[in-house]
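Fold this: Toprim domain-containing protein
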Amino acid sequence: MKPVILAEKPSQAKAYADAFSVRKYEGFLEINPCPIFPEGAYITWGVGHLVELKEPHAYNPAWKRWTLGSLPILPDRYEFQVAKGKFKQFQIVKKLIRGTDTVINACDNDISP
């Protein structure tokens, strides 16, 4: 199985891909077989956050118009949804990840020094 490299954004994926011979597709790049990836690999990306927490009113309609007195809003179980406008890229990432047994997280770590 070809590994999937997940970058945070398209420009980051392109920077990684510049080190390899690749074929371009919509939403991902395919690394041609090489010494580092003998079977090849895929590089794909998020476009910001692909998923997000559901809004409070999705859990309880009474939370649509909340006040300070209704805080904290703590659902029994947190649920996620695909972020608006990102469904197509989410589906591409999902398909690639489901088709592999190796995912390389090449996103920013968001840790400040």
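The longest strand covers residues 41-45. The chain has a mean pLDDT of 94.
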